[in-house]
Amino acid sequence: MSFAPEIKGELIEILGAKWVKDDPVTLFSYRSDALTLHPAPPMGVIYPGTTDELVACVKLFHHNGISFVPRGAGTGLSGGAIPRDRSVVVEMFRFNTIEEIDVANRTAVVGPGVVNLAVTKAAAPHGLYFVPDPSSQKACTVGGNVGENSGGPHTLKYGVTVNHVLGLEMVLPDGELVRLGGKAWGVPGPDLLGLVVGSEGTFGIVTKVTCRLTPIPEKALTMLGVFESVADACRTVSDIIRNGIVPAALEMIDHIVIEAVEKYIGAGFPLDAEAVLIIELEDLKDGIEDEAERIREICRANNAREVRLAADEAERAQIWRARKEAFGALGTISPSFYTQDGVIPRSKLPEVLEEILACGKRYGFRVANVFHAGDGNLHPLIPYDSQNPKDVENVFEVGREILEICLKAGGSLSGEHGIGLEKAHMMEQVYNQDDRDNMIAMRTVFNPDDLLNPGKIFPNPSRCSETKVVRGKTGIAV
Amino acid sequence: MTAEAFKGVPFDNVLKCVHCGLCLDDCPTYRELGVEQDSPRGRLYLMRGLWEGELDLTPDVAAPLNRCLDCRACETACPSAVPYGELLEKARGVIAENLPQSRQRRFLEAVFFRRVLPSTGWMRLISMGGWIYRLLGLHLIFSQTALARLLPDWAVRGNAMMPRFAGRSFKLGYRKSKNKGKHKVGLFTGCIMDVADLDIHRATVKLLEASGCEVVVPKEQACCGALHVHNGEREIPRTLALRNEEAFKDESLDAVIVNAAGCGAQLREYGHLFSDSPERNDERRHDFGNRIQDILVYLSDLEGYRNLKWQAKKETVLYDAPCHLMHAQKTDTPRTLLAENPAVNLVPLEDADRCCGAAGIYNMVHGDLADDILDRKLDDIEATLALNPDAATLVTGNPGCLFQIRNGVRNRGLPLRVIHPVQLLAELME
Fold it and tell me: What pLDDT digit, counting tens, does each position of A186-226 carry?
């Protein structure tokens, strides 16, 4: 169950007794992240405070063949931080200092345990910010963002985490400390940095991140397009892009979600609309109004009932709060939700959404949608009753079918939540055996013994190949 | 399946938590300790485990639940509207009833919760003792000499944090309002605050009267029971609730005014307290809760207050938002009221809505952790002072926070007086 006595003794020697835990309450508490359907208790949890301590612990695990998994705030939705095979959880909370804000080079050097929003807060006085803005940004950590290659609403214009990280320091699974990239752009040879970002904690444990900071745009306009049909809203999305406009964000919210956020947040979304689009433009002051006018025309041409421009900062903030807290707000209409994350070419939005709704209906679920429409990143939310075993079973089935619909439309398994534990068993539907073998060979370069975060991204062939639902009674599902 | 210990305790709302973790960075104990079970999400997971019977009620499970400040910042952060405070208080009730308690805790219950706090007589006696104690300078002996080493930690902390005892009860000494104003309001005076730092009640009455209110102070009122509820007591505070409802039953009262955020939150939430006591859970709890108003919130709606004249000279002020106004009563009106005052130059304090670590008697029971949390607050205050050297006053509308921050500011030697917002407003009135 817990640490073997001699391992625990050595860990305590490295970290001090306070930072080594394997009591039943800790094991219970760390058995899941924000994906609660597959709880698995760890062997124990360690809380290293320095890179040296981490290196020493990793070497110990390596020598003893003990698997381990890094964890930030545990807000991940694909189970990336769930310890498979009784892995040790390496809690990175204490790596939470912002070491430097370099205004001239527009970089920030931060520990992986720093909260995403804290980077932007620290950079803001210099007119800079950290672009990746996942909905969990007020709690999730930069280390987690690197692991999952997190996106967020502003991905459309600015790219995902990999586009905003210039350098990493990380500990490999055998305890070697390596540095990738730095403050400068472009590193000769294959892009190892790009490979590591998004490796979901299976290549190494990041101990330091050099973030690229971006100037805060001179002007931002947030618009709200109100539509009578989801199809019209979808067509608007394609038309905006087709017209050569790249909004900073282009988000769609359907009427189920409108209902929920209005109940909880009250952002002034019309309750009788079928869909709203949040369209954000960020640019220089000059010309942005013209762009807004063009968007207004495109919305109207697609039968928008109303196009609203947020009058001030407060109204903007309110719209974004409604968007970012939409997942949680759904808790007010159903206690349990299963959130999917798939990507499709945006031109396919209308058909795919229809198929998804029909698929939910077949099982008696009313699927809700709130998603990054601009880059075709869907987040269907399936409400279900976690107390009802039949529902729990069905919700999985629907989740899987939705992903299959996305794949059939030429899309992919995950836009930003990662493959993790949740979708590992579906990778064979995307890649053939050769592809998968090559990817695993790549992982082997970094993580030869598969001690680091086993069972993620690819099912573990030597063990159980299929992720089985082990639902504890407390398997709260998102 | 519900665990035996939770029988009759409505707890379904724990299912509202979707485990998203958006609360984590807003939790003072998580920020300090970095441990999942010391975060709101982790605590809810434990509570759910207990409720569903998956976890056994052991001291190890109870410890993180008891380590919570009950500041409820997580409720503000939560997108799923989980009623965290209510769940925690019920869970603590179950813990207190089903787990053997420590000696300290049994003493607290038998003496402090059961005898002292509910009794005006006892409070007066303690106040007299405290007044003489300070008059003789005994508090200095304990704080400035080696004698302190002989005392238990909580006593040293209590000594440092001790309010300015007046030696008498405000409600018993109160004469009828001179005013026969437009509005008649009741003033809730509390337990400790009824016998200490009486300037706060005086300033409250002064402001209300100047704004055209007639103030009544029923003598039969009692402690609100917040300290009890936060510590898992259920039965004693229920009797206090009934006493207070009785004391303020006069229907001609426009509102019951409270100048302590923690008491205000408790008085408003008597319904929660009775939700696991079905035989006495009726509409009256709800009606009473709706009549409770924080003093600054009440003033903000009062025409008489809007017409008050203020001194010409501006005073630079820091505002610290008590958690039980901001997160429990969910109002930021006190801050905006101060910001709008022409005699106040309100300086924003970073993280003003984060707990200072006082949390009732938390700072005496979990002293070290409370110190760490207070340190963050003091760091923020110091940074703000550095940018605003002319600020000489910090206001906060809850006695616990007042004593905690006052003590911290004194220990750090910061040039700042810490008072209640009503004291500031009463000073600034022309």
Answer: 778 889 999 999 999 999 999 999 999 999 999 999 999 99
B186, B216 contact by CB (below 8 A): yes
Residues A421/A413, Cβ–Cβ less than 8 Å: no
Please spell the DSSP secondary structure of A137-178, one letter per residue: TTT-BHHHHHHHT---TTHHHH--GGGGEEEEEEE-TTS-EE
The answer to whether residues B184 and B64 belong to one domain is no
The range of the structural domain enclosing residue A371 comes to: 334-408
Which tokens go with A38? 């597959």
Among A282, A303, A328, identify where a domain stops. Answer: A328
pLDDT tops 90 at residue B286: no
Question: What are the residues whose beta carbons fall under 8 Å from the beta carbon of B188, sequence distance 6 or more?
Answer: B221, B224, B244, B248, B256, B257, B258, B259, B260, B263, B267, B292
Q: Are residues B135 and B232 in the same domain?
A: no
Instruction: Give residue B193's domain range.
Output: 170-300
CATH number of domain containing B336: 3.40.50
Please give the average per-residue pLDDT across B342-353, as a whole number: 94
Per-residue pLDDT of A120-167, as tens digits, reads 999 999 999 999 999 899 999 999 999 999 998 888 999 999 999 999
| Pair (A110, A166) in one structural domain | yes
Closest CB to B20 among A21, A328, A474? A328
Q: How far is B83 from chain A (nearest CA, A)?
A: 12
- My answer on whether B250 and B316 are in the same domain is no
| Predicted complex ipTM exceeds 0.85 | yes
A197 and A232 both lie in a single domain: no
Do A228 and A322 fall within a single domain?
A: yes
Residue A144: give its domain's CATH number: 3.30.465.10
> What confidence category does residue B22 fall into, taking pLDDT thresholds of 50, 70 and 90?
very high
Per-residue confidence at A228, pLDDT binned at 50, 70, 90?
Answer: very high
Q: Which of A388, A391, A476, A478 is best to mutate for the B interface (most B CBs within 10 A)?
A: A476
Q: What is the mean pLDDT of chain B?
A: 92
Partners of A474 on chain B (C-beta within 8 Å) are: 45, 48-49, 52, 54
Contact list in B for residue A93 (CB cut-off 8 A) is 34-35
Query: Looking at the complex, does the CB of residue B351 fall below 8 Å from at least one CB of chain A?
Result: no
Task: Check A94 against B53: CB less than 8 A apart.
Answer: no
Cα(B318)–Cα(B425) distance, integer angstroms: 13
**In-domain check, residue A84:** no
Closest CB to B18 among A74, A474, A478:
A478
Cα nearest neighbour of B58 on chain A: A25
Q: Phi, psi (5° rounding) for residue A37?
A: -80, -15
List of chain B residues whose C-beta atoms are within 8 Å of the C-beta of residue A75: 20-22, 24
Q: Looking at the domain assignment, is residue A176 inside a domain?
A: yes
Identify the closest residue of chain B to A386 by CA–CA distance.
B15
Alpha-carbon span A378 to A359, nearest angstrom:
15
Average pLDDT, chain A: 91
What residues contact A272, with CB distance under 8 A and at least 6 apart? none
User: In angstroms, rounded to a whole number, what is the distance separating the alpha carbons of residues B266 and B253?
Assistant: 19
Backbone φ and ψ of A92, nearest 5°: -95, 15
CATH code of the domain in which A398 resides? 3.30.70.2740
> Is residue A444 in a domain?
no
The packing angle between helices A230-242 and A349-362, to 10°, is 150
pLDDT of residue A264: 78
Residues of A in contact with B19 (CB under 8 A): 32, 34, 36, 476, 478
Task: Inform me whether the pLDDT recorded for B296 exceeds 80.
Answer: yes
How many domains does one find in chain A? 3
Position A110 in a domain: yes
Q: Within this chain, do residues A309 and A396 fall inside the same structural domain, yes or no?
A: no
**Closest residue in A to B40 (Cα–Cα):** A29
- Residue B330 touches partner A, C-beta closer than 8 Å: no
Does residue B296 share a domain with residue B191?
A: yes
Model confidence at A472, in pLDDT bands (50, 70, 90)?
very low
